[in-house]
Write a structure and sequence with these properties.
This protein is an alpha+beta fold and about 350 residues long. The chain has eight helices and 20 strands.
């Protein structure tokens, strides 16, 4: 088993794929989808077609037969042309959710139209480093439109100044081109990045990148993927959880296994809380999630919930921890940022 954070770049059925391995464990997986449906982060020039009464939203024409849905669209009349960005994957048969607040995101920087100012990630605390980054940002952003802002991400810490400057300049150039392209028929203006580019943008510190053909096989990535195709996943201490997506929600059932000790339920529930974000991320599951934890006293609920909060705080996908139901289940609401793995792997 290879230690450290390793990124493997390979293909699945001819589509780009990226896997993040952490000490031999699959931590994240990105695969370019099969179809040409709008993907998160893609930016479109859209045309408003008709309002959705009672939903405070409006249907948009994205071009080439694609439809979008924009919430909180008060004041946007039918026929209006506007720029929108895909926020999440659409459920089958529904219009793609979009927002009209655009973000241009890269490894080191995020350009924020209509949100001026230069900000540095709070995780960067060293004052000398913050001063260095401010100087780079001001120089690279000198000719930016007045209403555009910039956020320097945590990956900037210790990074080469020239690389940061070039990254900011590229994002600014991309943003300026899109923001000036408001006239014309509905069409895609900026596509979502492929799996390899997303990996570079979002996965932070990396010890090694391997891009040889067939590296998924050599690094054991396929073994991890095949394990994800099964609903049951093994946890520490012999416990397990079964993750089963339905049309309405994702059901998670926790089992203690062969452990019959008094603390078996708590141990299984804590193990579930720690691994649940990773499992949902790898399986591409979102929406409403209901967890049936192993039996344990009500007094232990706070411990379980605190562990859930810590685990999801470190996760890259927005998740709302709703709380306990009257039946003792725990509910979450997770952004549909990825397609289900079963759909991604279809051939």
């Amino acid at each position: 088993m290879r230690k450290g954070r390793i990124v493997a770049i390979d293909t699945i059925d001819g589509r780009k794929a990226a896997a993040l391995l952490q000490d031999g464990i699959l931590y994240d997986l990105l695969v370019d989808p099969i179809n040409d449906r709008p993907r998160p982060h893609a930016i479109y020039r859209a045309k408003a077609t008709h309002p959705m009464k009672g939903q405070n939203g409006i249907i948009l024409d994205l071009g080439h037969g694609q439809k979008g849905f924009l919430k909180q669209a008060k004041g946007i009349a039918s026929g209006t042309t506007l720029l929108v960005q895909v926020s999440t994957h659409a459920e089958t048969g529904k219009a793609t959710p979009v927002v009209n607040k655009l973000l241009f995101k890269s490894r080191y920087a995020i350009v924020t139209p209509n949100a001026p100012g230069i900000n540095i990630a709070r995780s960067i605390r060293d004052e000398d480093e913050r001063l260095r980054l401010h100087e780079i940002a001001h120089e690279a952003f000198e000719d930016a439109p007045e209403d555009c802002g910039l956020i320097l991400r945590s990956a900037c810490e210790g990074a080469d100044g020239g690389d940061i400057y070039a990254n900011i300049a590229a994002m600014l150039q991309s943003a300026t081109a899109v923001l000036n392209d408001t006239a014309g028929a509905p069409e895609l203006l900026l596509d979502s990045p492929d799996a390899a580019e997303q990996a570079w943008t979002n996965w932070g510190d990396i010890d090694e990148v391997i891009s040889d053909d067939g590296c998924f096989e050599g690094l054991g990535v396929w073994d991890h993927i095949h394990a994800l195709e099964r609903p049951e996943c093994t946890l520490s201490g012999g416990a397990s959880m079964v993750i089963e997506p339905t049309r309405a929600l994702v059901a998670v059932d926790v089992n203690t296994g062969a452990d019959f000790s008094l603390s078996a339920g708590l141990k299984a529930n804590i193990a579930t809380a720690k691994d649940l974000p990773r499992q949902l991320r790898l399986r591409g599951l979102g929406g409403q999630i209901v967890v049936d934890f192993a039996p344990s006293p009500k007094a232990e609920r706070r411990t379980i919930e605190n562990q859930l909060r810590r685990a999801f705080k470190a996760d890259s996908i927005d998740t709302i921890l709703v709380g306990w139901t009257s039946l003792g289940h725990y509910e979450l609401q997770r952004k549909r940022e990825r397609l289900p793995l079963s759909e991604v792997l279809q051939t």
